[in-house]
Amino acid sequence: SGFTQHGPIVGNVLGIEVGDEFLYRVELNIVGLHRPYQGGIDTTRDRYNVLIAISVVASGGYPDQLSRSGELVYTGSGGKISGKKGVGDQKLEKGNLALKNCIRTKTPVRVIHRFNGLNGETPMFTYDGLYNVVDCWREGQPGSKVFKYKLQRIPGQAELHYGSETSHR
Amino acid sequence: SGFTQHGPIVGNVLGIEVGDEFLYRVELNIVGLHRPYQGGIDTTRDRYNVLIAISVVASGGYPDQLSRSGELVYTGSGGKISGKKGVGDQKLEKGNLALKNCIRTKTPVRVIHRFNGLNGETPMFTYDGLYNVVDCWREGQPGSKVFKYKLQRIPGQAELHYGSETSHR
DNA sequence: TAGACGTAGA
DNA sequence: TCTACGTCTA
């Protein structure tokens, strides 16, 4: 209903290219890149009814790590976020389960990364391209265990230009 | 920052007419009709630094009453909403205080009303025009007292067409 | 820093 | 019905 124009899309979204920038989460929804308004992991079911993840947003709400070599360590959803109300271990359900299932189903996952906009820049969401989920493990003390996922950027996509180049607009 | 284009505006907003419709709260923000994303009462301070209300949204989250004679009974903000987490009496602060102050400062308040979209219609926010706040009182049992405000539509504005006419689009 | 009549999807 | 890496203003 409303402006929403897309159902769940696996893989690249027609008309959206690596490096495309967005100001608000609602824009990601409208173009079909990532549908949840707040959630970090968008999910659907594949032809065998297996829950899979189709896109993730790394906004800084969790301690994710992005390396220049195209490797991303993404933190699962739920559980205790620093200072926030949530309490307890993350569970292997919903988005967390979906992301894990991407390993064996070899489902490519769209990665959207939020740059915080240093030096008074406007924060932007940037489409980083397709990644494969290659590993999944748990970290943390009992009561605050989280899931971690290693994602590797699929080769052959347009290069990303981070760092100083993103400062020029 | 971002798309926000307006500071607080008292009275009518240039380019917005009675009956104009909007799909999302963010649109009310962008055009300057009502800035808060969730809050029902938008406030600012007048030239004497008195806190005043400049617009309210009646979305159905509280039991408001709109009569065909241009009279609206609006419920204050805070306290216990049916079933929600909030608990206790509403306080005469922030938006509630601002709305009360509109009585003595004779500040006109923009009213935006949300129609729920019966028969599969898309829910819409509609600009209802300017109202005067003419009365304020408290209602309810101790522990769940709320503020009520009587608003009267300022005469001479374009008529509103509710009911059957809003079914045709 | 926290609160608020938000939204979409599961 | 509930959750979710939202987003604004005070």
TrEMBL record, chains A, B:
Protein's cellular compartments: Chromosome; Nucleus
Species annotation: Miscanthus lutarioriparius
Name of the molecule in the record: YDG domain-containing protein
Domain YDG: 11-153
